[in-house]
Specification:
Largest sheet: 3 strands, antiparallel
Bound molecules: acetyl coenzyme *A
Strand content: 5-15%
Structural class: mainly alpha
Shape: globular
Strand order of the largest sheet: 1-2-3
Helix content: 40-55%
Number of helices: 18
C-alpha cells in the first residue's frame, strides 16, 4: 500500500499493467510508479525529469503549450500588473493574498529580520573583490546555517516560518552587499521606511556621502522583475532546494544549494549570457550569422534567452518584461538603445525561422531582463543575483510546503547502471 497525499485524487482507471493514475487539479495526470520496482522489478528511466512529477505541489502551475503561468491559481499577468511584491510573496508562501492587516504584519516581519548580523558582514572580507556575486551569495547564505541556534527546531511551525521570513528579508541585503563589496563601497543597511524593491535599490546604488532618491519607475520595474521571477514550479534550483530539504537539511543550506544551481547558464545565469551575446552581436546586421550558428548542430552555440523546458509558446514573463523594458528605456531617455534594437530584431528573425518554429523555441524570461537591468545600472554580474533575490520566495515556499508533506520522505532517485558487472581482483 503506497502513501497518498490529501490533495491527490486516484483515478478510477489504471494503466494496462495495473498502475494507479493520479489526478491533480489541472494539468496532465500522473502514473503512480512507486510500486513498479517491487511488483515488476522495473525502474522508470527519465534523465532530466522530462516526464516525471517529482512531488505534489499546490504553489505554481505552468501550461507550457498555452504559455500560461499561475501562482496559487492567479495568472502572472494579473499579479504582475496589480500587486506589490510583498502581496505576491505572501500569496506564494501562505497560499492566499493578504488582507491589509496581514500584509502590514508580513511587511513588519520582513523589516524586523532584514538586517545582517555583524559577523555575517565580516564574511564579505574573506572573499576576493572580483568574485562573482553568486559565488559570494552561495557562501554567505550557506553560512547563515551557523546562526539562529535558538530557532533551529525545524519540526516546529514557528521555526520554519521564522527561517523562511529571515531568508526573504535578508536576501536583498546579501545580494547588494556582494556588489558594494566588489566595488569597495561601504555595505549599506536596509531602511525600513522603504518597501522591499526600493530598499534593494538604495542598498545597491546608495552612497554614504549623498542621499539616495528612489526613482518610482525603477522601483516598480525591479518589483515587476521580483514578481515575475518569484517562482516557477519544479525548475532546477527549486528541485535542488526540495531535494536538499527532503533529507531534513538546514533551510539556509538548502537555499544555498538553490543559489548554486540557479547560477548555471542554462538556468538563471542565462540573463547574463543574453547580454554578453547581444553585446557580441553588436548590430542587427550580424543577426543572420548568429541565427545560423544557433541552428548548426556542430556548433555548441545556443541563442541565449530562447527556449524553455516547459514553455512551447511565448513565456508570459518575457512579454511582461519586454513591455517594462520599453517603459524604463523611455523613462531614462534610452529609447534608441542598440541592445534593445538588436534584441527585438533577433526575436523577429528567430520567430520567423523554421528551426525555431518547429522546435517551439520562444524568448524566455531572461531574454529582455538583462537589457532592463543594464538600463537601470546593474552590472551584468549582478543579473543572476537579482534573480536569486526574487526566487528566494519560491524556494522558501517550496521548503515550507515540503515540511508539511510528512509522507514525502527523502528524495533518492535510482539509476540505470551501465558500469562493469561483478568482477574480482586478480592479485
Ligand atoms: N538555441 C538553439 N537551439 C536550441 C535552443 C536555443 N536556445 N534551445 C533548445 N534548442 C534546440 C536543441 O538544440 C534541441 O535540438 P535537437 O532536438 O535538434 O537536439 C531542441 O531545441 C530541444 O532542446 P533541449 O536542450 O532538449 O531542451 P531542454 O528543455 O533540455 O532545454 C533550455 C531548455 C536549457 C532552456 C534550452 O532551451 C537552452 O539552453 N536555452 C538557452 C539558455 C536559456 O535561455 N536558459 C534560460 C532558461 S529560463 C530560466 O531558467 C529562467
Amino acid at each position: 500500500m503506497t502513501k497518498q497525499y490529501a490533495n491527490i485524487v486516484v483515478s478510477d482507471t489504471q494503466t494496462p499493467n495495473g498502475l494507479p493514475i493520479l489526478k491533480g487539479s489541472i494539468g496532465p495526470d500522473a502514473v503512480d510508479v512507486r510500486t513498479l520496482l517491487g511488483r515488476q522489478n522495473l525502474l522508470t528511466y527519465d534523465p532530466g525529469f522530462r516526464s516525471t512529477a517529482s512531488c505534489e505541489s499546490a504553489i505554481t502551475y505552468i501550461d507550457g503549450e498555452a504559455g500560461q503561468l499561475l501562482y496559487r491559481g492567479y495568472p502572472i499577468e494579473e499579479l504582475a500588473t496589480r500587486c506589490g511584491f510583498s502581496e505576491v510573496a505572501h500569496l506564494l508562501m501562505y497560499g492566499e493574498l493578504p488582507a491589509s492587516e496581514q500584509l502590514s504584519g508580513f511587511q513588519c516581519k520582513i523589516n524586523e529580520y532584514n538586517l545582517l548580523h555583524d559577523q555575517v558582514l565580516s564574511f564579505y572580507h574573506g572573499f576576493r573583490r572580483d568574485a562573482h556575486p553568486m559565488a559570494v551569495m552561495v557562501g554567505v547564505v550557506g553560512a547563515l546555517s551557523a546562526f539562529y541556534q535558538d530557532s533551529q527546531d525545524y519540526s516546529r511551525d514557528e521555526d520554519q516560518h521564522k527561517a523562511a521570513i529571515r531568508l526573504v528579508a535578508k536576501m536583498p541585503a546579501i545580494a547588494a552587499a556582494s556588489y558594494t563589496y566588489s566595488i569597495g563601497r561601504p555595505i549599506r543597511h536596509p531602511d525600513n521606511n522603504l518597501d522591499y524593491a526600493s530598499n534593494f535599490l538604495q542598498m545597491m546604488f546608495g552612497k554614504p556621502n549623498e542621499p539616495y532618491h528612489v526613482d518610482p519607475v525603477l522601483a516598480r520595474a525591479i518589483e515587476m522583475i521580483f514578481i515575475l521571477h518569484a517562482d516557477h514550479e519544479q525548475n532546477a534550483s527549486t528541485s535542488t532546494v526540495r531535494m536538499a530539504a527532503s533529507s531534513g537539511a538546514n533551510p539556509f543550506a538548502c537555499v544555498a544549494s538553490g543559489i548554486a544551481t540557479l547560477w548555471g547558464p542554462a538556468h538563471g545565469g542565462a540573463n547574463e549570457a543574453v547580454l554578453t551575446m547581444l553585446e557580441d552581436i553588436g548590430s542587427p546586421d550580424r543577426i543572420p550569422e548568429i541565427v545560423r550558428r544557433a541552428k548548426d548542430k556542430n556548433d555548441p552555440f545556443r541563442l541565449m534567452g530562447f527556449g524553455h523546458r516547459v514553455y512551447r509558446n511565448y513565456d508570459p514573463r518575457a512579454a511582461l518584461i519586454r513591455d517594462t523594458t520599453r517603459q524604463v528605456l523611455a523613462h531614462l531617455g534610452m529609447e534608441n538603445s542598440p541592445l534593445m534594437a538588436t534584441a527585438l530584431e533577433l526575436e523577429r528573425v528567430a520567430l520567423e525561422d523554421d528551426y525555431f518554429i518547429e522546435k517551439k523555441l520562444y524568448p524566455n524570461v531572461d531574454f529582455y531582463s538583462g537589457i532592463l537591468l543594464r538600463a537601470m545600472g546593474f552590472p551584468s554580474r549582478m543579473f543572476t543575483a537579482v534573480f536569486a533575490v526574487a526566487r528566494t520566495v519560491g524556494w522558501v515556499s517550496h521548503w515550507l510546503e515540503l515540511k508539511q508533506q510528512a509522507g514525502h520522505g527523502i528524495d533518492r532517485p535510482r539509476q540505470l547502471y551501465t558500469g562493469p558487472t561483478l568482477r574480482h581482483l586478480d592479485k
